[in-house]
Amino acid sequence: MTRYGMVVGLNEDKKAEYVRLHAAVWPDVLKMIAQCNIKNYSIYLKEPENLMFSYYEYHGSDHAADMAKMAADPVTQDWWALCMPCQNPLSTRKPGEWWAAMDEIFHMA
To answer: Residue 100, by phi and psi: left (phi above 0), alpha (psi -120 to 50) or beta?
Structure first.
């Protein structure tokens, strides 16, 4: 199992919409997340900075392939089309990232 932490900004004018969307995530989106070997997935919001932190545990053997599978899913694409305009990616993210990956520097099991 590998843990992932990522961060992205949230547009102030879209905050209520984003929170509303995540109060009732589409069942097919949740199924795809599970099919892609992701467990224990959480998103946190830090206000007033409007930074979101996501955490999940990956239990598969090919993270890149599972992420490609998720990205190719039409329902997930529709979900992202609603969510992404709410987000404000960090200018310091790496090429190809939307949510900026974070390095784990401490973990206690």
So the answer is: beta
Check which CATH number belongs to the domain holding 15 and give it: 3.30.70.1090
Q: What are phi and psi of 68, to 5 degrees?
A: -65, -40
Mean pLDDT computed over 60-70: 98
Number of neighbours of residue 32 by Cβ within 10 angstroms: 20
Torsion of CA 54, 55, 57, 61, to 10 degrees: 50
Mean predicted confidence (pLDDT) in 52-69: 98
Count of domains in the chain?
1
| pLDDT attached to residue 95 | 95
- Angle of helix 15-23 relative to helix 74-83, nearest 10 degrees? 150
What confidence score (pLDDT) does residue 53 get? 98
Alpha-carbon distance of 5 to 41, in angstroms, equals 10
Mean pLDDT of the chain: 97
Q: Which DSSP string do the residues of 56-80 spell out, in sequence order?
A: EEE-SS-HHHHHHHHHH-HHHHHHH
